[in-house]
Amino acid sequence: MIFGAHESIAGGVFNAVERGKAATCDTIQMFNKSNNQWRAKKLTGDEVEQFFKAIETTGVTVSVSHTSYLINIASPDKALAEKSFQSLKEEMERCAVLKIPNLVMHPGSHVGSGEEAGLKAIAKHINRMFSELKDNNVTLLLETTAGQGTNLGYTFEQLAYIIDKIENKGKMGVCLDTCHIFSAGYPIVKPKDYRATMKKFDEVLGLELLKIIHANDSLREFGLKRDRHEHIGEGHIGKAGFANFVNDRRLKKIPMILETPKGEDLKEDKRNLKILRGLVKK
Ligand SMILES: [Zn+2]
Ligand SMILES: [Zn+2]
Fold first, then answer.
1. Domain range holding 119?
2. What residues does the ion ligand 1 have nearby, CB within 5 Å?
3. Which of 63, 156, 160, 234 could form a disulfide with 27 if both were Cys (CB 3.0 to 4.6 A apart)?
4. Nearest ligand to the C-alpha of residue 35?
């Protein structure tokens, strides 16, 4: 199995790779720019070179980048939707420069316009983006969400509805967040429930669309639609739930990435990764 964590780019994008190494990651997720700003200054040749060098010297790969939390291409506010679109497009371009194969985004929030209108707006913007970025080979992943507020993407059907409307389906994928699906009401703790949930994923979306797993325990109880990440084994999913994922042979090549709280010394990442690796049956 491939294990890793989301690592900070503070001080430069190459630092995420170095932090990944220090945290014992095989692979990492990172932002490609500050996650609370709309625009970023262009990556310099030096930064890009340093980034590739860090990957080469550490052996840590970068599987995926996560979009800024500001982006909402489902917004009924035209100006905000356009700003989100431009920002998403820029992130796709930055991933291409950094040779990061996947960019994961939360589908968006309909903010009162209704679920169907929101899902349609998302598909429309993604189609436009791919038509404007013909030479870009980054795969755009939609993340399963917990369904807080008016967030879309809390059912596999909603993600399938969006992807079905995308002309260039080959450029789409899915990121499954364990905390989010558990919180959205998909049981994964008992082996038989886990199997049923993954069967549903396969039937509705297709396992071949699954590119990344976010391995987060859930601070809150099952089905509450609350997105609160907890350390592995300390939440309501527990070690039993994660044992299902790490021993599922179909997921052997799917990076499992932590998005759990951490301090600067990354000891929490090291501990969580040790627990995940320890759950793999020999
Ligand atoms: Zn996310
Ligand atoms: Zn996530």
1. 3-278
2. 143
3. 63
4. 1
